[in-house]
C-alpha cells in the first residue's frame, strides 16, 4: 500500500507541486459551500499502440490522459 501511495504522489502530486495539505485546502474550499460529502479523484492513463505489416511498423500511437476532478454531494444533488 505504501508503494502505491508513493507512486501516486510521484505521478499525480509532485510534478504539480501538490501535497496533502494543498488537497485538504481544496476540499475545505468545497465544504465552504455546505455540501454533505466531497472528494477529489485523480486519473492517469498511459497507452501505446503499434500496427505492423509483415514485421514492418506501419503506424504507432502514444497518449497520456491525466487530470483531477471534484465530486460534491448536497442532499440529492451531485456535482
Structure in words:
The structure is a single chain. This protein has 79 residues and is α+β, with helices and mostly antiparallel strands. 30% of the residues lie in helices and 48% in strands. The protein contains 2 helices and 3 strands. The chain is elongated. The mean pLDDT is 92.
Topology:
Elements: H1 2-13, H2 20-31, E1 37-53, E2 56-74, E3 77-78
Antiparallel strand pairs: 1-2, 2-3
Measured by DSSP, the beta-strand proportion falls in: over 45%
H/E element string?
HHEEE
Unreliable runs, pLDDT <50, ≥5 residues?
A: none
Radius of gyration equals 19 Å
Structural class: alpha+beta
Helix content: 25-40%
- Rough shape? elongated
**Strand neighbour order, sheet with most strands:** 1-2-3
Brief descriptors of the model:
79 residues; elongated
How do you describe this structure in short?
With 79 residues, the protein is an alpha+beta fold. The chain has two helices and three strands.
Amino acid at each position: 500500500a505504501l508503494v502505491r501511495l508513493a507512486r501516486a504522489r510521484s505521478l499525480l502530486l509532485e510534478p504539480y507541486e501538490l501535497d496533502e495539505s494543498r488537497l485538504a485546502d481544496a476540499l475545505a474550499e468545497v465544504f465552504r459551500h455546505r455540501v454533505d460529502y466531497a472528494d477529489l479523484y485523480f486519473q492517469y492513463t498511459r497507452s501505446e499502440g503499434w500496427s505492423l505489416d509483415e514485421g514492418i511498423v506501419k503506424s504507432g500511437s502514444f497518449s497520456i490522459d491525466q487530470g483531477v476532478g471534484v465530486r460534491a454531494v448536497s442532499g440529492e444533488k451531485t456535482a
